[in-house]
Write a structure and sequence with these properties.
With 76 residues, this protein is mostly beta strands. The protein folds into 2 domains: 42 residues, no CATH class; 34 residues. 0% of the residues lie in helices and 21% in strands. The chain starts with 34 loop residues before the first strand and ends with a strand.
Amino acid sequence: MSGIDAWANFNPNQHEIVYSLHYNPEIGETFLAEIKDGIAQDFIPQKVYNKISKEERILQSWEDRINPETEQISNL
């Protein structure tokens, strides 16, 4: 099943069918994963540094966000 057969609210002018093995947001959530050729891409962890303390953390999923006022993504 796909499209309207799988979801009664499917509207091809608003929605896109995407194959996603490891990423599955809840209904109503924004689909954040990058899409290439109809396939959701796996998230690649990224190092983020606090601009003041230089403390490092790692973004682990599409839902993780940085605070651009205090953090930056590592360019290494």
